[in-house]
């Protein structure tokens, strides 16, 4: 199938750039045309196998790049797709189709001529420069241009292709030039009177010749056009003649219309009576609007929570009295029988216009007077939604431009002067509104935390120092004992508050106190004089104070236990000491008893041995005590020890106790040894002299 197509058609289709394209299906002339189109140099002499190999290397290897260039070039070409004839409604351009071209069996004896880019490059049939118009008549000349564009496509084909069908000339064979561009668009200037417009017969002959030539051209028609019968071709020629005749008549009528334009009448000026009427009406309307605005602006806001005010009521009464006095034709506003002031009755209005008797409603969450508005606590004054770009409005609604002192007041004063009282806008035009302060809860929370911290630190300070005393409930109770007075706390917190929050500080402070009391972290008390006190339930302590308070609490809890333990320790120590002393005294008493008994026995032996030296066989108890315990200087200890010795010695059967008169005439208790003297030795010596020696103390013996 591809062997029947010319090189230009092969290039126009672009199927040779497909990845699965087989180059062997092309003829030698087609291969030469494709290679020449892409500026690929081929060898001479050449054969089909060499051309196929060259196609594989230069064309197929670069098929992706060549496809992109082809699409880019195709998209840049202007198209007449969608443009239809204004009279017939048919598309101006014919959809090109690849019609098979009959080839002659004759071959050229010479080598095919290599086509250049200019000969083979056109993919789209050029229609000449013209503007796109969806309603332009077909004035001829397009068929011959299509013939020219297609006629240059097949240059390197055999000569038989161009000679198979000779061109049939119908009527005049001279080719008429194309119609100018302005004729096709029907927007052309009036031709000068010296030029003669072409006759319709010439246009018909030219179009018929062009149509016949186009039908005879083998490369400009599709397969369906080549197979049409002769009758269809004659019908098309007849239709084209009728369309050309209609187009010529339209052109002639437009030329005549442009050649003789209809003179337009000059615009007339409005008459002075119309102007005077307009000025009079405007003045009347302006007067009544000004009067209405003045009366309405003097009303102001309604009372809070109401849709009227005392001003509205007085104004209604005044209007009713004016209506009555006008009906009764009185000169005074009040009846003479009422004996009131003689206010003159106002003149009746020339036109039955309404009087302002309504006030502007007070905004929600606000308190209003006649010309001022104040928001409730926790709400801020904001401008009307239409005036969102302005700053906070003033509380007074009758602020005038003359009384302003700042730029914002100048703006609001100008708005009040211009808009207040206008019909439809109310007494106060675009009234402000009260919106909840978005930062109020944040401020209340911050102030509440600050109050909580202050009260906690105050309780912690008092708890750390221990300087506090119990207070009765009637005098303030725990709140007064650990807290501060409410007025003093308010002054302290006011000093810490920024200046911009001072106007709403009192409200925020009271709200913060209420929230703290509701949460249960704060105790409140009141004394007999009406002073209120606040205290935090949980103290806030530093590390040192926390340690001190903890130690104090532990000591207060464990003090009895500690004293009991100390007492037990003292008692145990005293008992142990006493027991040790008693044990020591017992041991010493036993030693003293043995010394006393040995002394008494030695005295008895010495008396019998040497009566001169030892005149008496007995010894005084007191003298023996002082002799034995002469190293003990404590009289109580000496007496306590000797009492025990006396009990043991006097209880001994070898000792006799008597009352004897001693030297010096005193009668004392004396001890005398009456037991046996055998087996006993004094100082380990058996001499009789030692036996008669006077008794010695253990110290002297040692």
How is this structure best described in words?
With 702 residues, this protein is mainly alpha-helical. The protein folds into four domains: 77-259, no CATH class; 277-430, no CATH class; 440-541, Arc Repressor Mutant, subunit A (Orthogonal Bundle); 571-701, no CATH class. Helices cover 47% and strands 6% of the residues. The strands form four sheets. Strands 5-7-6 form a three-stranded antiparallel β-sheet. A hairpin with a 4-residue loop joins β1 (366-368) and β2 (373-375). α2 (28-37) runs parallel beside α3 (48-60), α6 runs parallel beside α9 (200-216) and α19 (543-609) crosses α21 (635-650). The radius of gyration is 71 Å and the shape is elongated. The protein starts with 6 loop residues before the first helix and ends with a helix.
Helix content: 40-55%
Q: In DSSP terms, counting alpha (H) and pi (I) runs of 4 or more, how many helices? A: 23
> Sheet bearing the most strands, described?
3 strands, antiparallel
Ends apart, CA distance between termini:
160 Å
Class from secondary-structure proportions: mainly alpha
* Strand segment tally: 10
Average pLDDT taken over every residue: 73
Residue runs with pLDDT of under 50 for 5 or more positions: 94-233, 260-266, 679-702
Strand content: 5-15%
């Amino acid at each position: 199938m591809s062997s029947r197509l010319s090189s230009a058609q092969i290039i126009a289709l672009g199927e040779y750039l497909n990845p699965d394209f087989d180059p062997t299906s092309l003829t030698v002339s087609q291969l030469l045309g494709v290679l020449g189109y892409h500026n690929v140099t081929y060898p001479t002499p050449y054969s089909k196998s060499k051309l196929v190999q060259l196609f594989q290397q230069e064309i197929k290897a670069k098929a992706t790049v060549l496809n992109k260039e082809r699409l880019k070039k195709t998209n840049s070409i202007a198209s007449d797709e969608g443009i239809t004839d204004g009279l017939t409604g048919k598309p101006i351009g014919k959809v090109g189709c690849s019609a098979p071209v009959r080839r002659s069996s004759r071959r050229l004896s010479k080598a095919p001529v290599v086509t250049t880019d200019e000969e083979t490059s056109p993919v789209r049939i050029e229609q000449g420069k013209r503007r796109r118009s969806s309603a332009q008549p077909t004035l001829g000349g397009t068929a011959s241009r299509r013939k020219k564009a297609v006629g240059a496509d097949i240059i390197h084909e055999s000569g038989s292709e161009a000679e198979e069908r000779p061109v049939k000339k119908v009527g005049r064979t001279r080719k008429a030039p194309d119609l100018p561009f302005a004729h096709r668009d029907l927007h052309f200037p009036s031709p000068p009177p010296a030029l003669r417009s072409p006759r319709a017969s010439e246009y018909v002959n030219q179009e018929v010749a062009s149509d016949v030539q186009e039908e005879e051209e083998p490369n400009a028609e599709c397969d369906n056009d080549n197979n049409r019968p002769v009758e269809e071709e004659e019908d098309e020629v007849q239709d084209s003649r009728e369309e050309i005749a209609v187009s010529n008549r339209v052109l002639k009528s437009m030329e005549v219309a442009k050649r003789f334009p209809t003179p337009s009448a000059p615009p007339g000026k409005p008459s002075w009576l119309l102007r005077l009427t307009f000025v009079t009406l405007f003045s009347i309307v302006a007067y009544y609007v000004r009067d209405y605005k003045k009366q309405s602006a003097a009303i102001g806001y309604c009372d809070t929570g109401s849709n009227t005010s005392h001003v509205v009521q007085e104004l209604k009464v005044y209007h009713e009295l004016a209506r009555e006095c006008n009906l009764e034709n009185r000169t005074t506003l009040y009846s003479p029988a009422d004996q009131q002031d003689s206010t003159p009755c106002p003149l009746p209005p020339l036109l039955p216009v309404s009087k302002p008797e309504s006030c502007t409603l007070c905004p929600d969450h606000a308190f209003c007077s006649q010309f001022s508005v104040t928001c409730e606590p926790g709400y801020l004054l904001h401008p009307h939604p239409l005036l969102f770009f302005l700053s906070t409005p003033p509380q007074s609604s009758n602020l005038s431009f003359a009384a302003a002192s700042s730029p914002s007041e100048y703006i609001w004063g100008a708005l009040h002067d211009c808009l207040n009282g206008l019909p439809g806008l109310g007494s106060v035009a675009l009234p402000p509104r009260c919106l909840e302060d978005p930062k109020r809860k944040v401020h209340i929370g911050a102030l509440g935390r600050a109050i909580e911290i202050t009260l906690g630190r105050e309780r912690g300070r008092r708890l750390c120092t221990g300087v506090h005393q119990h207070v009765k409930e009637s005098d303030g109770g725990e709140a007064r004992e650990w807290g501060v007075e409410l007025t003093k706390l308010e002054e302290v917190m006011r000093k810490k508050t920024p200046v911009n929050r001072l106007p709403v500080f009192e409200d925020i402070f009271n709200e913060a106190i209420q929230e703290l009391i509701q949460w249960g972290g704060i105790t409140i008390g009141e004394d007999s004089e009406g002073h209120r006190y606040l205290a935090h339930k949980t103290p806030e302590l530093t590390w040192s104070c926390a340690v001190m308070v903890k130690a104090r609490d532990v000591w207060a809890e464990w003090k009895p236990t500690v004293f009991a333990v100390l007492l037990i320790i003292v008692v145990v120590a005293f008992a142990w000491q006493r027991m040790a002393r008693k044990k020591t005294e017992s041991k010493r008493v036993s030693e003293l008893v043995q010394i006393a008994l040995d002394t008494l026995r030695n005295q008895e032996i010495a008396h019998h041995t040497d009566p001169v030296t030892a005149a008496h066989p007995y010894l005084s108890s007191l003298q023996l005590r002082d002799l034995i315990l002469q190293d003990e200087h404590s009289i109580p200890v000496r007496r306590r020890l000797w009492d025990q010795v006396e009990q043991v010695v006097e209880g001994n059967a070898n000792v006799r106790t008597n009352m004897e008169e001693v030297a010096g005439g005193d009668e004392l208790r004396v001890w005398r040894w009456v037991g046996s003297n055998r087996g006993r030795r004094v100082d380990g010596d058996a001499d009789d002299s030692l036996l008669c020696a006077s008794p010695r103390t253990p110290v002297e013996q040692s």
